[in-house]
């Protein structure tokens, strides 16, 4: 069994929308990012890479590389899953937390769980998605951005 932890954060800004696990969670504002800025997909990808000791998201998809401008984060996550599986592992559990003051996860939770489970090639019952605020503290509490943390458990396939 292998365990990995991931984190990502982005500030709000620009046109677009806010994605969480490939699901539109806020249509009114986007985030500043090289890719589509899906903090949840990024945190999960880094957790997977860490658990399999395959580096990190920035090494695979550097933000300075124009190929990743506007990239679909769930597509990047699928590429990470492919690499993790090629290394001989499968996902047995994901626990993730979105940290945001105003963006609400609850109305989208089941869709996010299903979407993540499909990309991770596991059952939705193995995917937990939670949310919290910082009660007004820091950049997250001032609603200047959002963040996500994820922990995954891998087993040998």
Strand content: 25-35%
Number of DSSP helical runs: 5
Q: Under the CATH scheme, which architecture would be assigned?
A: 2-Layer Sandwich
Number of domains: 1
Helical proportion, percent range: 25-40%
Give the overall shape. globular
Placed side by side, the strands forming the largest sheet appear as: 1-6-4-5
Structural class: alpha+beta
- Please write the CATH class name: Alpha Beta
Quaternary status:
single chain
- Computed Rg: 15 Å
Mean pLDDT over the residues = 96
> What is the rounded distance between the termini?
10 Å
What is the CATH third-level topology name? Answer: 60s Ribosomal Protein L30, Chain: A
DSSP strand tally:
6
Unreliable residue stretches:
none
Order of helices and strands: EEEHHHEHEHE
CATH H-level superfamily title: 2-C-methyl-D-erythritol 2,4-cyclodiphosphate synthase
Summarize the main sheet. 4 strands, mixed
Would you summarize the structure shown here?
The chain is α+β, with helices and mostly antiparallel strands.
Write structural notes for this entry.
The mean pLDDT is 96. The strands form two sheets. This protein has a four-stranded mixed β-sheet with strand order 1-6-4-5. The chain has a two-stranded antiparallel ribbon with strand order 2-3. It has a single domain (2-156), classed as 2-C-methyl-D-erythritol 2,4-cyclodiphosphate synthase (60s Ribosomal Protein L30, Chain: A, 2-Layer Sandwich). The protein is built from five helices and six strands. It is 30% helix and 29% strand. It has helices at residues 39-51, 57-60, 73-86, 109-120, 138-141, and strands spanning 2-11, 18-20, 23-26, 89-99, 127-132, 145-156. The chain is of the alpha+beta class.
């Amino acid at each position: 069994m292998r365990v990995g932890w991931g984190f990502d954060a982005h500030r709000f800004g620009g046109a677009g929308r806010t994605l969480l696990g490939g699901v539109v969670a806020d249509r009114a504002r986007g985030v500043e990012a090289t890719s589509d800025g899906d903090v949840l997909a990024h945190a999960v990808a880094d957790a997977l890479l860490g658990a399999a000791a395959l580096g990190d998201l920035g090494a695979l998809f550097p933000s300075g590389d124009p190929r990743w401008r506007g990239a679909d984060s769930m597509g990047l996550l699928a590429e990470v899953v492919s690499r993790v599986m090629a290394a001989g592992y499968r996902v047995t559990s994901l626990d993730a937390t979105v940290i945001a003051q105003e963006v609400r996860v609850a109305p989208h939770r089941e869709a996010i769980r299903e979407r993540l489970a499909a990309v991770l090639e596991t059952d939705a019952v193995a995917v937990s998605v939670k949310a919290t605020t910082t009660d007004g503290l820091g950049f997250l509490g001032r609603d200047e951005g959002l963040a996500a943390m994820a922990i995954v458990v891998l087993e040998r396939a």
